[in-house]
Each structure stands twice: as structure tokens, then as C-alpha cells.
Amino acid sequence: MTVQKDRPHTAPSPRRIRWPGVGVLAMLLSGCAGQLPPLPPPTPGAYRLGAGDQLRVLTYNDLQLSNTFTVGDNGQIAFPLIGSLQASGLTTRELQALIVDQLTSKGILNRPSVSVEVTQYRPIFVLGEVAHPGQYPYMPGMTMLSAVALAGGYTYRAVTDHAGDVRSDAGGSGRTIEGRVRRDSLLQPGDVITIYERYF
Predict the structure, then answer these.
(1) 48, 93, 75: which is closest to 189 by C-alpha?
(2) Of 96 and 199, which is predicted with more confidence?
(3) Which residue from 11, 54, 155, 176 puts its CA 20 to 30 A from 123's CA?
(4) What b/e string do you get for 33-59 counting C-beta neighbours within 10 Å, with b at 16 or more?
């Protein structure tokens, strides 16, 4: 007669929880910037003035009415003998026509000749994974990559193929739009660029 030995009772092992790998988590985290919709390209056409722009106004044959002005936070410039003029949202040609109209209608000058040009655009801001985050002067034709170059280049942790951009409406409405820009995307004065950190 064979006696069968009892087998030792083994408790069932708990199920192992599979956590996402480090690579997967890194992809999810570094993809935050990629979740932003692409920022629409700048609207074609003449540049619209905004707060912070510096202008040179030349009134021919009248030095008193020729000077450099900065568009204030309220979107206006203080012009001699006229007073406050709304400049934000206008092109330089439209502001020029406004000044001519005001000088004529107020009887200050007869058939004045005026020119307006931008001498310095409002700055851009570069934040995040660059060597020197901060405020930098805008130059026409500036791209995301040239802005990064001004800020000293990428850090070794930077996402280098795209960035976030917050753009304000130059018309003074206070509206902003946020989206994704690529290395060759054209920027606008006042843009706030964020270079994101990668996690792998």
C-alpha cells in the first residue's frame, strides 16, 4: 500500500502589475508640447503696430513735429499739438494718414507731409531649455531657430524640433493664441517662445 504524501500548500502568487517603461513615460511627458495645435502663420500683409513698438515720425519742414515715439500699453502715442493718437492695430501708412488728417483738421499745418517708420519692434521672449532665457529684440524674418540662437542655443535637455508659442493680438483686443511652432516657423513681435525639456 502506497501512502501519498501531502504536497505543501503554496499560496497563489499575486498578479504582477506592469508599469509603463521609462521610455514610454518619457515619450508621454516630452510629447506635451506636441499636443499643442500648430500655430497659424502670421497673417500676410502690412505689419500692425502694437504696444512697445518704437516709431520715428518725420514731419517735413517742421522739426517740432518730428520725433521718436513709443506705443504705450494703452496702444497710443502722445503727439505734439494733437494729443493722444491710437496707434495699436494700425499700419505705419494708416498712422501716417491719421496724423496728416489731424494736423490738417486742427489747422496746425496746411498740406503736411508726414512719414512713419518702425525703428524698433516690441521684443520677443525665449523661455525654457535655452542657455540664456530672457527678452530679445525682434527682427523681421526671425524664426524659432534664430530666436534660440539669440538665447545662446539649446541646452542638452531641450526638445529641438518644435516649441510652444504664445502670440498676442496686435490690435489691442487682449486676445492671445497658443500653439506649436517648428524650427523654421516665422515669429511675430511680442511672441513668447517656450523650449521644452525632453525626458530621455
Answers:
(1) 48
(2) 96
(3) 155
(4) beebeebeeeeeeebbbbbbbebebeb
